[in-house]
């Protein structure tokens, strides 16, 4: 469905939108008719890589941040114990983890978005897409949209880790 969402967003910006006024099922049917079922799954490899990096990084990064801010270098031992249970400090460490995961996964997200866009037919694979972006637009293009995504993902991960100790207390 991520491909469908990306295509619909691109289409709405187009001077000649194909899907304007169409229902979601009709738009999906049109996409499948034009490109086959594989067209709806363009960019799936990049999506899997992006999500793998995100999930692989977030918990260790949150734990490393908590370890740093709860260490005796930053506070007394007793305060460190309280911080570990604190929703604020868990959320803060979650925000750092979310930002870090975006920094590492952003190139995969850019490739995914390009593969899923209306221009996705230009690319034969995720690797071809990556190489083309770097060659035509430069390596920094792999971080396009990074800051807004860092704020959104950082906030989401912060909320998750803020709620974790609260829910743990209830259980």
Strand content: under 5%
The separation of the N and C termini measures: 35 Å
- Low-pLDDT runs of 5+ residues are none
Gyration radius, in Å: 20 Å
Helix residue percentage:
over 70%
Shape: elongated
Number of strands: 0
Task: Report on the biggest sheet.
Answer: none
Question: Given the structure, what is the number of helices?
Answer: 8
Taken in chain order, the helices and strands follow as HHHHHHHH
**Structural class assignment:** mainly alpha
Mean pLDDT: 91
Short description:
76% of the residues lie in helices and 0% in strands. The protein is mainly alpha-helical and 171 residues long.
What would you say this structure looks like, in words?
There is one protein chain. The protein has eight helices and no strands. By secondary structure, the chain is mainly α. The longest helix has 30 residues, at 87-116. The radius of gyration is 20 Å and the shape is elongated.
Provide keyphrases for this structure.
mainly alpha
How do the helices and strands line up, and which of them pair or pack?
Elements: H1 2-13, H2 24-35, H3 37-40, H4 44-69, H5 77-85, H6 87-116, H7 126-137, H8 146-170
Helix pairs in contact: 4-6, 6-7, 6-8
